[in-house]
TrEMBL record:
E.C. numbers: 4.3.1.3
Similarity comment: family membership: Belongs to the PAL/histidase family.
Record-listed cross-link 5-imidazolinone (Ala-Gly), residues: 144-146
BP terms from Gene Ontology: L-histidine catabolic process
Recorded coiled-coil stretches: none
One term under GO cellular component: cytoplasm
One annotated GO molecular function: histidine ammonia-lyase activity
Chief place of localization: cytoplasm
Record note on modification: Contains an active site 4-methylidene-imidazol-5-one (MIO), which is formed autocatalytically by cyclization and dehydration of residues Ala-Ser-Gly.
Protein name from the UniProt record: Histidine ammonia-lyase
Amino acid sequence: MAPRIFVDGNQLTIEQVVAIARDFAQLELTEEARQNIVRSRQMVETMVEQQRVVYGITTGFGKFSDVVIPAEEVSQLQENLIMSHACGLGQPYPVEVVRAMMALRVNALAKGYSGIRPQTVQLLIDMCNLGVHPMIPQQGSLGASGDLAPLAHMVLVMLGKGEAEYKGTRMAGAAALHAAGLAPIQLQAKEGLALINGTQAMTALLCLSLYDARRLMENAEVIAGMTMEALRGIRDAFDPQLHAVRPHPGQQESARKMLLLLEGSERITSQGQLRVQDPYSLRCIPQVHGATRDALEYVWTAVTRECNSVTDNPVLFSDTGDVISGGNFHGQPMALAADFLAIAMAELANISERRTERLVNPQLSGLPGFLTEKGGLHSGFMITQYVAASIVSENKVLCHPASVDSIPSSANQEDHVSMGTTAARKLRTIVDNVRKVLAIEYLAAAQAIDFGEGRLGRGTAQAYQRIRQEIPRLLEDREMHPDLAKAEQLLQNEWLWTM
């Protein structure tokens, strides 16, 4: 039975978002959240009755914010908003991204500042729990005024429109609702705006990428440790005294982890035993990996905060009766976070590829060229390094920050946008690419270890044994793609070493 996660708008974690997205954990509102939703809804109904002029409730949107809408057309206004804004293009998001978006939007609405009806929120919850997944195109969000186009496609299905995936089959939105035993809803005042004014597309992408990045961070260090052993690296570079005098937390943690996972190794050396210094790709593992650790920590905190934020406009404060129009929908905090993490993760691949080059290059490693005993007849790991080089080069292109761009929209009313969703989409690709590059180093390091002798460290031994359970030593040339795919799958799904 899938676990149940209670949401109140304040305590949703990245791990819980991932559980809903990938493990089909079930959503449920807390009673307090329901009461908060009811209170904010009462505010909207009062404003409509009093015919107050309030943005998005009794007015048009964007440049049309000065157009007052008659009370009898308020419901049509909300439906028109969804239909007109559902104009995304490109391939649809994977189901896990869609589910994360739905969960995050529910959590934002649960805070009780949006003015939506409880039954409308419940329909979104039921769709998520029963597996009605709207088809949401990936392109079309500026990341300010929220992720308008992606979220509009999500809401279309709630209206019995658009398309959805249900039990693996793509079908009309109305058919998907019917198959799941659900009925479409007619939006009332403020509800369309409440559902699409938010950063949930970019935040969903960030949650999933962050979760994967954190595992890659830990696995990268185990793989680096294997390379250290294969190349008889020098342990002194990880001495705590060295890192105490440059006290970046990530650097210190990486150095500590390297010493732990190499504990008991007979393969690594001491300063002066074979050489005085290692090359930077070995010696500077704590400094490079540690900087990525610090970036991950910052972005994790920022995204967790965003998961539990109000990103609507306007925002309704039931305690004071105030309705404030502002810019909480602007994705700049997430745009900068996504670009920062993209750069930080790409560096894990950059330094990994350099270690792979040292493993396969006989002039640098002292090992058989390209890690094969019959060089010439066999190419061994020659082209795997080419592939790693190609992927890190691709990442360098993708790392150009999206957040430095802005294009005015809505007749210049919305004259600065974040491009946060573009940044988050690029980040997802970069994280996938980093996994591929690390998979290549993982395989190469295991192969290089096979040419040496002596006990491996406590952590590296686990990682070596795990890959050898799946992939045998390369004794003669064979198709490398299946091996690399298996290694990549291990990095996606497993922690290579646990203390």
